[in-house]
Amino acid sequence: MPVNIPPFQFSNIVFDGFHDAISKGYVSFEQAEVSLQIFRGQACNFPFVVIDPTIGLDIFRRKRPFLLLSILTFAAQSNLALQQKLETELKESLSRRLIVEGEKSLDLLQGLLVYLNWYHFHFDPARQQLYPLLQMANSVALELGLDRPVRQQLPINLASLVPELLIKSRLPIEEVEGRRALLGCYCLSSSMCFTMRKPNNLPHSAYISACGELLAGIGAAESDALLPICVHLQRLQEDINQSFRYNRADQQGELDSEKIETLCIKFEQQIEQSRSAFPPEIWNNAKVVSSYHAIKIYAREIGFHAQPPSAFSVPTPGSGPPWYISPARHNSLLGCLEATTEYLDHLLSLSTSNILGFTTPDLLRLLYAVLVLGRFSNGVDAPLLDANLLRTVANLRYYLESLAAKFRDVLATIHNPSEHYLVYLRRLVEDSKRWYTPALPGPPTFREDLFSPDPMQMTQKALPTGQDNCLDVPGGLAGRPDFVSAWDKPAASSDPSDLFIKWGDTGTG
């Protein structure tokens, strides 16, 4: 007859046969249980890894040790010293199991996705590995065969999902988790890679969409309803990136004005159709709304990608105006400015809990929007638009000060805010005003609506053609407690996302 002997404890160390953060005394059993509860509350922000509330801590330690370690690391955000210790443990475990031992498992993949989704907790410009880790997660998913159906495709028609238990019996829990992880890889990597202007090794496929629809139809978890929405938005962003070649700006060449205008109309229609097609309750999810507004900016960013025609160029008979001076381009710029202010207004309206629930994709979207607004404030080379009026409408000073105040108010609700990453994000926003000092003459006295008039009715005064200023990654980007604000003036660029290009290249690990 077996006898259950309690584990022998000495100080914080637990001798129970495991070699994890609990047995090493980093966290207690009670802290680990609380960490799991905290993570379960993040399902609306991260529906790609779901924890069954009926699974106990002991099962996690035996069956999902790396996922557990990643969750413990995420939940330790209020204790920087502990979080750094756990992250070191996580990286050592990942290196040993994945690199040295060549392990490929769902446990590793799920833990890696959790780590990447909150990577901003650990961001260090000198040693960050965000892009390589994204591609590593995709590679694990592909080697596990998660991108391929393991059996004949199940029906995704909601009417065919009755009785529900019958369908659930055909889809084991491991397969449900694997499909969620595949969707997590796609949504995380596509979102962050496109923002950083990096190639993504996991493109959209019909199977990815089918997985999202199937999981939402089964409804094994309430958050599964978000999966097809997330996939749809990321597929739309992927289509925009492929059409406008944002991540291959050096290969854009001379843009065809008529083709770009057709694509702009197409994407505007798809964005509007998405808004009407999503269930009404989806719009209560702050993450979905933020993603939607950010994609509107992304679709209209093409207006920045234009070069003055050569003085020696000869127009083709019957062709329209070059993209640089076309009304479609100026409409795109006006729409981009409108979408950017809409996004920032939405973000400023978020609750404290929504701000504290930010993920790494959320922060990348925020920084992207600020960069775009900064481009308008520094002056846009658009002959049919008034640069001073654009600068006034962009209202950069207002948004930078409002963001700093928003983060300050959120930090006031935290018990020990000095080590929270929002301290450094607030400092980043405040110091950004130094970069834009020439573009910030003073508080604006009014807000004008530039979004209704036809660009051809705007001032015909041509703006001087020259280099466009854009944010670039400073050497001391805020992200760690030892951050020192000593930034250079932004480098010249026509792409609002050059910051992310360098961020993706920063550090070799």
Automatic annotation (TrEMBL):
Q: Tell me the Pfam families matching this sequence.
A: Fungal_trans
- Which compartments does it reside in? Nucleus
Single GO molecular-function term? zinc ion binding
Which cellular component appears as one GO term in the record? nucleus
Q: Which residues form the Xylanolytic transcriptional activator regulatory domain?
A: 62-204
The name of this protein is Xylanolytic transcriptional activator regulatory domain-containing protein
Please give a single GO biological process term from the UniProt record.
DNA-templated transcription
Q: Where mainly located?
A: nucleus
In which organism is this protein found?
Answer: Cladophialophora psammophila CBS 110553
Q: Which UniProt keywords are given for this protein, alphabetically ordered?
A: DNA-binding, Nucleus, Transcription, Transcription regulation
